[in-house]
Amino acid sequence: MLKRFEVRNFKSFKNNTIFDLEKTNYQMLSSTNAYGNLLKGAIFVGPNASGKSNAILAVRFLLDALLGMQSADFQSGLCLFSQNPTLKLRYVFEIDKVEIEYEIEYQRIDKLIKEKLLVDHSIILSREGSVATVSVSEKTEYTDVPSDSLFLRDIYFNTRFRGNEILQKWFDYLSKSIYCDLYTRTTISYRNIDLSLFKYLEQNGVDEINSFLNDYRFNQQVIYDNEAHGKTFKILSKEKSIFLKRNSIGDPIPLSLESLGNKILLTILPLFFECIKNGGMLILDEFSSGLHNELEELLIRYFMKKSTNSQILFASHSTNLLTNQLLRPDQIYSVDFDGEGSRIKRFSSEKPREAQNLEKMYLSGVFNGVPNYASDVE
To answer: Among residues 298, 348, 297, which one has the least CA distance to residue 319?
Structure first.
């Protein structure tokens, strides 16, 4: 699982910034929101254009660079308003109580890439430009490393880390991760599997989704079939279609005519199921798009209670999620933007008590990350 990540000169984060996912001394929600000494995720809140999405995009960058279909796009990651030509990223994971640290550095002027991989503080891979040394392949020294990709990516695809179980488990965890932008409903599976609703229903049927809807009293069910029967009519088609049938109406409604909220819910439920069952990270941007506040709370509570070695990282504008009944103070980060770029504040740094109202404290400015708009319109 992800233990911490660090960025410098990445997108809106001009200065060195550390995001910590280690559990602090808080005892609240320890049985649901933590797995060992690590937290099952974090939320990023703050004004529009503060850098919330950029925080989780730093994790997506790692996944894209190591497992994506294209080479690492360092230019798009560089902070546009910084004179510093060097981008630096550092990720620390814990796999079977073994710490894995991976550092990436990119120098814009000469397009030089540096990499370093450590396992329990021992260097496994070191790369500077086209020269690299590695101890997890038959060949240990390289002088012809391509300049447009990560060397660790090449080693993985060429060797699959044969004989190194920890690195295999680490990449297995990474590959099970999923990214989704709820606003555009863009989903990326790093196992390259189709996580669309149609594919999910074709492979798994409707039972799991309908069980969820039934357990949490949605009073509706999903139908995926060539025909759908109602009280007043039935629908027949050559191909299978998706319908929602409300208990109070009794007639099937095509998904295409449903609300945005229902469409988004049915889009992301397979992602939740997949990540909870298999592990990995679920990275959600614009989590507040189209979902009612209480539905957002339900989904986060569901993830925390049902998952084990899975993590969820998400950006949202919904301040109702800032409560000790749902998330621990060490799982909440506010993001601000000033003349130095994006800055973060972890709620636990203010040591709020369990009985305190985190949402109220946030809105009053205790944790920063609150917009300061004019109260009246002239």
So the answer is: 297
Highest average pLDDT, of 20-24, 136-140, 260-264, comes from: 20-24
Helix (H, G, I), strand (E, B) or coil at 79: coil
Per the listing, tokens 């998904």 go with 255
For the chain, list the domains and their CATH numbers: 2-176+279-363 (3.40.50), 200-260 (no CATH)
Listing from the earlier edge strand, what are the strands of the sheet with 252-254? 220-229, 234-246, 252-254
Question: Is 0.85 topped by the overall pTM?
Answer: yes
Return the SS3 of 276.
helix
Burial class (CB in 10 A: 0-12, 13-18, 19+), 371: exposed
Q: How far apart are CA 38 and CA 3, in angstroms?
A: 6
Under 8 Å CB-to-CB from 318, ≥6 apart: which residues?
287, 288, 293, 296
Q: Both tokens of residue 194? A: 């189709």
- CA dist 44 and 55 (Å) reads 8
Do the strands 252-254 and 34-35 form a parallel or antiparallel pair, or are they unpaired? unpaired
Which pLDDT does position 33 carry in this prediction?
98
Instruction: List beta partners, residue 189.
Output: 178
Tens-digit pLDDT profile for residues 293-304: 999 999 999 999
